[in-house]
Amino acid sequence: MSAVNDTKFKSSVFLLTGIPGQEDVQNLWISLPFCLMYVTSILGNSVILFIIITDPSLHEPMYIFLSMLGATDLGLSIATIPTILGIFLFNSREISFDACFAQLFFIQSLQCFESSVLLLMAFDRFIAICDPLRYASILTLPRIAKMGLVCVLRGVAMILPFPLLLKRFQYCQANVLSHSYCLHMEVMTMACADITVNNIYGLFTTVLTVGVGPLLIFLSYVMIIKTVLSITSHKEFLRALNTCVSHLCAVLLFYTPEFSLTLIHRFGKGSSPLLQIVLGYVYLMVPPLINPVVYSVKSKHLRSRIIRVFVK
Questions:
Q1: Mean per-residue pLDDT, 230-256
Q2: Residue with more model confidence, 59 or 270
């Protein structure tokens, strides 16, 4: 019996999963759109970053926050490319423990950073609409840099315990993960040890990102709507709301699948595995794909710069 138990600890890899039941078609029909989505996401966010960095006229708070969002989306795409495309293009399912822990750290710390950036963008819209005369004096470049640094440190500090806690475990459960990438909530269930600390800390970080972040964004928009409703001019009313559309789209794209996936992982044990997998892909791939499009369409200033770059 001890020999059997010993063999359980010899595995040094997790096995990732593509789309169950679609193995015959995923190498071609699924890999092509995935490749297209990744290329589009990387190009879109890279172009926006390049234009904002190189164009001095775009060195304003709104565009600096947008560059932070673009850099985060670019990082998320790069962090998930190796395993997702590895499965669909080469049927490479194995990932070592250390590589898995590193991937979940980068994915979840970048997502934590993105939630912080979305909150900063809400603060930017709040100041721009509710206190426009003090906008330039409040959101100075040094203050924005400090905000960005705090967001990065917050993401690293909150997520770094995840791989450290997971690394101390031995894994004797089935080593097949249900996604094409590593997430803390799933990896910790593979451990043959008490995961109470992981559960409590995971819940704590979830509350801070999925709970507190959206709540503060909601409160900022309550104040924005209250201010906008006091505007008597219908034209000014629409103009003020129009400046928030892009940010609201980014918030919905980020939090809707994340909130749904969190609920399913924690409370939806009987839910369809396919639903979890599809939400997982939407959660990681759709925001980096759509955000550059939304901001390029809604920002006339940014759109004209992009057109000028490609026309040249």
A1: 83
A2: 59
